[in-house]
């Protein structure tokens, strides 16, 4: 069968790539299975790179990934939800069985979800990358560590836009000296680890699992200045492109009497949210701060206060200034409307402190890895 003279495949390759890059990822995947006359354009590494480097994704590619566990401690659930209504659109089954007890979500970027298969103390582990859109999973070989000296691991993940490269950073804190740690960076492009001999983490993260928020090329953790509970907090950020650490201060006007403080994402991971919890005579509340201009300490702004009963669980994320995804103390997933001061039940119930919610944007990443 010959091609029509008006076929798209008679156009220059760069024009075809530009046209296809504007389609939703689901349509591209369907295109590869039905279009037998064309060269394997979607599978071409140059097209995959163009697709990843595009700053604008199709609306159908945006999802919210929500993880939670059943209240009987038996089942784990992953699902895609609408980023607008937060209603469930697809349940996910990960083609991997954890080895150490806990499959922690490290983060998601450009269609790839990063997991850390670890135990409760996070002192063993394996990194897993998974793209549910193309059903591709990759296990990452561990860097070399002497495990009997390890106190715990801290893991971060993200995408470097300039080099179109996925990276993983692992910080290892050691038992013999809390001020001693080592840092290794993995690049998916080279499929190899590199130990940062001249660069150690400037802050301490407590033993156990530490969530992070990826913003504009930086992995961010809420950290302590010293290995002592009760000391002041700061934000430790790792630049995945330059592979160096930075330290960001908390808002200058934050009330220091908080008994919990956590980081969350804002919008499509465009900035950081800081959630500070207070116990007061008239109940408990969360002060919500947003770093409007990432990296600029003076750009912290207090957006709202969430004052509701049974709300000591850290908010999961801020959709915008007016909507916050939260979990009640009895494990119900809710959407809080700031303007109306009302909570809307999303009909999901699980273990209160095991929820995780991250933004997910579909892509063809890992197609060649």
UniProtKB/TrEMBL annotation:
It comes from the Eukaryota. Residues 5-50 form the F-box domain. Coiled coil: none annotated. InterPro entries: F-box-assoc_dom_typ1 (IPR006527), F-box-assoc_interact_dom (IPR017451), F-box-like_dom_sf (IPR036047), F-box_dom (IPR001810), SCF_F-box_component (IPR050796). SUPFAM superfamilies: F-box domain. It holds the Pfam family F-box. This is F-box domain-containing protein. It comes from Lactuca virosa. The lineage of its organism: Eukaryota, Viridiplantae, Streptophyta, Embryophyta, Tracheophyta.
């Amino acid at each position: 069968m010959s091609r029509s003279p008006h076929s798209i495949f008679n156009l220059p390759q760069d024009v075809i790539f530009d046209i296809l890059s504007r389609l939703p990822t689901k349509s591209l995947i369907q295109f590869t299975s039905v279009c037998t006359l064309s060269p394997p354009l979607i599978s071409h590494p140059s097209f995959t790179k163009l697709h990843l480097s595009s700053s604008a994704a199709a609306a159908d590619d945006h999802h919210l990934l929500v993880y939670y566990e059943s209240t009987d401690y038996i089942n784990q659930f992953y699902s895609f939800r609408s980023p607008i209504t937060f209603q469930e659109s697809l349940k996910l089954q990960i083609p991997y069985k954890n080895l150490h007890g806990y499959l922690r979500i490290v983060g998601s970027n450009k269609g790839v979800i990063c997991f850390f298969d670890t135990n409760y103390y996070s002192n063993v582990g394996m990194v897993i990358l998974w793209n549910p859109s193309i059903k591709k999973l990759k296990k990452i070989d561990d860097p070399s560590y002497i495990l009997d000296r390890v106190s715990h691991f801290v893991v971060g993940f993200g995408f470097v836009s300039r080099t179109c490269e996925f990276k993983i950073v692992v910080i290892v804190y050691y038992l013999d000296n809390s001020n001693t740690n080592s840092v290794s960076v993995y690049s998916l492009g080279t499929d190899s680890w590199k130990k940062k001999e001249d660069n150690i983490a400037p802050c301490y993260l407590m033993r156990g699992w530490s969530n992070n928020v990826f913003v504009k090329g930086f992995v961010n953790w809420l950290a302590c200045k010293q290995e002592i509970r009760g000391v002041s907090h700061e934000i430790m950020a790792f630049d995945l492109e330059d592979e160096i650490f930075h330290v960001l201060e908390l808002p200058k006007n934050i009330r220091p009497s908080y008994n919990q403080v956590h980081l969350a994402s804002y919008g499509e991971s465009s900035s950081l949210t800081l959630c500070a919890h207070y116990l007061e005579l008239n109940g408990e509340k969360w002060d919500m701060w947003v770093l409007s201009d990432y990296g600029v300490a003076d750009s912290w702004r207090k957006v709202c206060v969430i004052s509701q009963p049974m709300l000591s669980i850290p908010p999961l994320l801020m959709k915008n200034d007016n909507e916050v995804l939260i979990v009640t103390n009895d494990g119900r997933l809710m959407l809080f409307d700031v303007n109306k001061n009302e909570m809307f039940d999303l009909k999901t119930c699980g273990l209160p402190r095991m929820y995780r919610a991250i933004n997910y944007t579909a892509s063809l990443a890992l197609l060649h890895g």
